[in-house]
Amino acid sequence: MDLLNYFFNPKSVAVIGASSDSYKAGGLCLMSLLQCGYKGTIYPINPHHEEIFGVITYPSVTELPETFDIGLIVVPSQAVKEAVLDCARAGAKGVIIISSGFKEAETGQELEKEILQSAIETGVKIIGPNTLGLINTACSLNLSFVPFLKEVPRGPIGLISQSGGVCMLVLYALLNENIGTSKAVALGNRCNVEFSDILAHFGSDPEIKVVLMYLEGIENPRLLLEEAKKITMFKPVVAYKVRGSEAVNRAAFSHTGTLTGSFYLYQTAFRDAGIIGVTSIDELIDTAKILSLSPIPRGNRVGIATVQAGLGIIFTSVAEQEGLKLAELEHSTIEALDNCLSSMARYTLHSNPIDITFGVSDKQIIIQTLRLIMQDNNVDMVALLNTHHPEYTPNILEAVEQLAAAGEITKPFVLMQDSPAEANDSKLKDIERKNIPVYRLPDRMARALANLYRYADIRQKKETIISEQSSQAALDEAKAKFILAGVEQEGRNVLTEPEAKEFLSTAGISVTPVKTIESSEEACRAAASLGTPVVLKLVSPLIVHKSDIGGVMLNLAGEKEIKEAYEEIILKGRCFDPLVRVSIQPMAPPGIEVIIGAITDNQFGPVIMFGLGGTTVEVYHDVSFRLLPLNTLAAREMIQEIKGFSLLQGYRGRVVVNLEPIVDILMKISTLVTTFTQIKEIDMNPVIVYPNKALVVDSRILLTG
Ligand code: ADP
Ligand code: MG
Question: What domain range includes position 517?
């Protein structure tokens, strides 16, 4: 059986450190259990009392009349290890350690290690330490020190929070928005119950329709992602990861290394796993509401009705920024709306958004307008926006209720309705009971609706990915291995540009041919066979950024120029490395410079990056990431995702670039990096792209060790 089931549906709970003082955590925990109406057996444990709050109390768990499922530990940190061992001896399936003073405190590091060790030895599962605990509304279970959580109504949400405080904050915010919760848990220091464990449990719980997560940062996000991937196809998972202040690693070997921060990797990872990433608590709650009430839309086209056009302008602006489209209404709809609204002098635009203005004085006009928008074949979702007016708001609310009662709301429908001092509160609650989410502000509603569509898109994409054959690029593995072995044998971990290019060629990636030369005469001979103009570059494992020290000389032609350039560059190079050499390659014709790179991140594993190349890449940070391995759909998407994408699409007379050669390189890098796990960082900067091909003109590779 799923071990976590014992935590959420225990037959019996022992409160170790139960107290008769209701101001202490031990008293609060016992009160929480008692007040919520939990039907299982409760065993307060305290050697100094025979009963607490009217419940028979035992001196130790080892003296209980029977085995029990869960131990709720609320003793001082020094006594926790013994309590865990006692619980294990007494046959408990799991413990929740509310007590703090562990990893989160300077002095508690050792204590935490000891607890983990005792968990390993006894096989007991531990939630916490330093946690709020958990609730399960289905069985009125409140294993926390917050008796007030009994107010949380039962509903479709499963909440996993790293922090106890944020868990409470979200639970109360959900409550204020009339959204019920099924199960909620704060994980605290995560001794041996992880996000991924809870996610798996929530995934298989039919009562949970939407999973919410709050994370600060975890050690092994891949575990969580693997688990999320299994459930996001049929159950939405929404995550809020706070953005920490990230020190930029300016000394990184590659540009990719500099540009990869954990915030970006989390966003990438969420998208890969089909998790909807949000950036505030508001957005988390708003998204939870729409996902728990609305059906999934077929597409992203919104039909909008407003009473005050200004609200529609804000809504539309945010909706479009977030990936929604303004629906182009069918001709027949416009005609019918003309008839319906013609008496309203201010109805002049005849297009979406439809401004009802004074039509709001007639409920039938509101109903007819909404009905026409809802029935339009070009509309996937409908939004209605109104700011409170004591005279007209009741008409709006009644119109919506009437349509809902008649079963005419057949597509996702959202209502923005503010209301002063509870004026319409009960009416709005009634509307939400009919599965219509209500929001108080236009921008928040737009973001929530966009996230609903995002989930539709996730499901649709997953279907496509599942049906796509996973393709590993063909690879001359023996040759690639030979190149890496050669470098490792020399005790190096950096591949020079010629080595890196040879390595890339083993996967069939197009590179400019490059030859290492020993003299100016050889340079001239090579130029004759390669064709001019040519480029001379320094070759040395000690020189990583060649042009920073004048180690790249471009566009050289003619014997004299090449010879002089050779002498100049080698002199410069010897200042940095006495064994420096020089390479020659043809000058690639001008095109658009992009950067492709990959790194193996300590937490996330292999990650690939795409961006516009050149020296500005680090300034503008216009790059996109994906976790590896990659599929072609994601490869195409990551190219289209960068802000400068229009530069590849014929912007102001530039060429239009075929994306497939870039996709091809991304897929090949994916194969190389996942096959050769010793690759730590790889940079191809620049890759020059042309209408129908992409050519790597510079590359560097760093191996582990
Ligand atoms: P580094 O990145 O080590 O400074 P590169 O080899 O990338 O050195 O060279 C610097 C710049 O010179 C590149 O960004 C590119 O614009 C240009 N360049 C390098 N090699 C070629 C080439 N073969 N053809 C055309 N331009 C090149
Ligand atoms: Mg470069």
Answer: 513-587
Contacts of 457-464 with C-beta under 8 Å, sequence gap 24+, read 457/300, 458/232, 458/236, 458/274, 458/276, 459/233, 459/274, 459/296, 461/274, 461/633, 462/232, 462/233, 462/274, 463/233, 464/633
**Pairing between β-strand 133-136 and β-strand 55-56 as defined by DSSP bridges:** unpaired
pTM for the structure as a whole: 0.86
Determine the pLDDT at residue 471. 64
Would 255 be classed as within a structural domain?
A: yes
* pLDDT for the residue 345: 47
Give the mutation target among 497, 530, 547 for probing the ligand 1 site: most ligand atoms within 8 A of CB.
Answer: 547
**Percent with pLDDT over 70 in the chain:** 96
Does the Cβ of 537 fall within 6 Å of ligand 1? yes
Of all protein residues, the one whose alpha carbon is nearest to atom 23 of ligand 1 is: 587
Let me know whether 573 and 597 are in one domain: no
Report CA(221)–ligand 2 centroid distance (Å). 31
Question: Which residue among 689, 698, 702 is best mutated to probe the pocket of ligand 1, counting the most ligand atoms within 8 A of its Cβ?
Answer: 698
Assess if residue 211 is contained within a domain. Answer: yes
Helix (H, G, I), strand (E, B) or coil at 215: strand
Residue 584: what residue type? I
Q: Is 588 in the pocket of ligand 1 (CB under 6 A)?
A: yes
- Residue 251 predicted with pLDDT over 80: no
Q: Is the CB of 255 inside a 6 Å radius of any atom of ligand 1?
A: no
* Ligand 1 nearest atom to the CA of residue 613, by list position: 14
Distance from residue 560's CA to the centre of ligand 1 (Å): 22
Do 664 and 691 have their domain in common? Answer: yes
For residues 112 and 170, state if they share a domain. Answer: no
Which residue's structure tokens are 């992203």?
300
Q: Does residue 71 sit within a domain?
A: yes
Q: 470-502 pLDDT, tens per residue?
A: 567 788 999 999 999 999 999 999 999 999 999
Ligand 2 centre to CA of 539 (Å) is: 13
- Residue at a domain's end among 539, 570, 587: 587
Please state the domain count of the chain. 5
Question: Could you tell me if residue 499 is inside a domain?
Answer: no
Q: What is the pLDDT of residues 401-414, one digit of tens each?
A: 999 999 999 999 99
Residue 529 Cα to ligand 1 midpoint, Å, equals 20
CATH code (residue 345):
3.40.50.261
Q: Do both 527 and 612 map to the same domain? A: no
252 lines ligand 1 (CB under 6 A): no
Backbone angles phi and psi of 517, in degrees to 5: -125, 160
Can you tell me the mean pLDDT for 588-604? 93
Q: Is the peptide bond before 686 cis (omega within 30 degrees of 0)?
A: yes
State the distance from the centre of ligand 1 to the C-alpha of 689, rounded, in angstroms: 13
